[in-house]
Amino acid sequence: MIVGNGIDVVRIDRISLNLSRKILTEREREIYDDLKTEERKKEFLAGRFAAKEAFFKAIGSGIGKYSFLDISILNDENGGPFILVERDFNPLFNYGYVSISHDFVAVASVILEKVVGGVIADSQSNVCTTIKSINNGLYELDCNLPPFKLWSIFKKKGINLVKYGNIWEANYFEHR
User: Fold this and answer.
1) Spatial distance between the Cα atoms of 158 and 47, rounded to a whole number of angstroms
2) Rounded distance, CA 53 to CA 104, Å?
3) Residue in 45, 10, 62 with CA at minimum distance from that of residue 70
4) What percent of the chain has pLDDT over 70?
5) Interatomic CA distance for residues 50 and 67, integer angstroms
6) 43-89 pLDDT, tens per residue?
7) Catalytic positions
8) Counting C-beta atoms within 10 Å of the first and last residue's C-beta, which end of the chain has fewer, N or C?
9) Contact 161, 168 (CB under 8 A)
10) Where are the alpha helices (H) located in 59-169, listed in sequence order?
11) Going from the N-terminus, what domains does the chain have, and what CATH number goes with each?
C-alpha cells in the first residue's frame, strides 16, 4: 500500500556548492567529490536536495524534525537512484522509490510503500530493530547477537533474514 508521495523542484542555478556539507551524507559525498565539473556537481546537489525534500514531503513531516543527513540517495549498478535510510523512521514504510531528472531544474519524485512481509535496512541491527517495531515489540530480541544466532531466532519466528552486500532484507514466510 502506498503510504506517501512527494515531489520537489529546484532551480539548479540557485544551488550553492557550499550547501553540500548540509545536504549530502558521507556516502553521497564520495560520489559528489568524484564529479569533474562544477556544473555536474550543481546538478547532483540539486537532484539530491529535491529528492530529500520529496522524501520528507512523502513521510508527511517536511524537513522540520529531520535532517537531510537522515537519508542517502545513492545509485544502483545501472545508475538508477535509490533511498538508503540512515535513521529509524519508526516504520512508516519499508520500500521507497525515487526518480530524479535535471535540465535547468532538478525535479524528484518519491513514493513510499508499506508492504506487509518485507523489511530492508542497511545493517543487521537496523533490520532487527525495525522488525521489533513492526511487531510492536512482540519479539524479545537482542539485536547485537551474531548473525547466525539472529538468523536462527528469526527462522523460528517465520522470518527469513538475507544479506546482499551491505543491505539486509527480512521476509516473512508461512511457518510450518
Assistant:
1) 39
2) 18
3) 62
4) 65
5) 14
6) 999 999 999 999 999 988 778 888 999 999 998 888 889 888 877 66
7) 57, 102
8) C
9) yes
10) 124-134, 147-156
11) 2-113 (3.90.470.20), 118-172 (no CATH)
Please tell me the least confidently modeled range out of 3-7, 41-45, 116-120: 116-120
What is residue 116's predicted lDDT score, i.e. its pLDDT?
Answer: 58
**Would you state the cell numbers that stand for residue 110, as one nine-digit string?**
518519491
Task: Look at the block and give the residue holding cell 538508477.
Answer: 80
Q: Which three cell numbers stand for residue 114?
A: 508499506
Other CB atoms closer than 10 Å to residue 23's CB: what's the count? 20
Of the CA atoms within 13 Å of residue 166, those in its CB half-sphere come to 6
Cell for 91? 516504520
> What is the CB-side half-sphere exposure of residue 136 using CA atoms within 13 A?
0
What pTM, to 2 d.p., does this model score? 0.67
Give how far the C-alpha of residue 43 lies from the chain's centroid of Cα atoms, to the nearest Å: 20
Residue 55 has which C-alpha cell? 522524501
Q: Which of 74, 71, 75, 76 is closest to 61 using CA atoms?
A: 71
As a whole number of angstroms, the distance between CA 57 and CA 96 comes to 13
